[in-house]
């Protein structure tokens, strides 16, 4: 299956690189908004601050304690599509789709869904879609979709319709194509199942580091997700190699892995999927990598974690 995965996955890897730069560097987002994609293998792993191995699939999947199980499967054109589970808080909807086209002899790994919530058509321009692609060792693919709900009333039940009318597949010859078919799902999330923020705090601090201003706007902490909004005075369209980014750690010093984000240089919202139910505090650490004109080309800009400028937010 390694060869089969090269097609759409190669394209997604480019998106991952772009998304990673955008998340690591506040400057990369520029003045345009974006959505990003991440590609992971079931078997790949990361380590927390204590050196413990954490699977990437676990990192991108909906936490077990928060997921709402759906478990509906629709098969058409030899492709089995399963809407596995979902999660919602007042700002984001997340759901997992399992693709299986092994019987066709190709590899399904791309979705183009049409989505509506309470009769309202959802699109990437207003609600910002984000996908995490998990390539399983059995030749199937899980896609975790995240949709921002900024313009959706989450105080009421959410009636959700998803139509996967096109699915991207990669052949054994590594040729990409789309298969049209009928994969439709309808499900509801009750208002009582939608998580509300544990803490929503406006910070509104400006940190001055080496002549640059870094902005710490606000943070929202949900039971299974953190939203952090920061920014800087760096103009990504100017001829500069200066970079600013953010690192979040929990009360035990473990780094919290960012997932995606959108916004501009001055205000970029970053997303972190993490279980916060037992977390006592979050520390926001500004990170900088500034140009040293005295360094010979190719210049190396060490990234510095400015712990002296860190801000700790108590949750409970």
Automatic annotation (TrEMBL):
Instruction: List the Gene3D superfamilies.
Output: bacillus anthracis domain (2.60.40.1630)
Q: Where does the source fall among the domains of life?
A: Bacteria
| One Pfam family from the record | DUF4179
Q: Which UniProt keywords apply?
A: Signal
Residues of the DUF4179 domain: 10-98
Q: What start and end residues bound the annotated signal peptide?
A: 1-37
Q: Which InterPro entries match?
A: DUF4179 (IPR025436)
Kindly provide the name given to this protein in its UniProt entry.
Answer: DUF4179 domain-containing protein
Record the organism.
Clostridium diolis
What does the organism's lineage look like at the top?
Bacteria, Bacillati, Bacillota, Clostridia, Eubacteriales
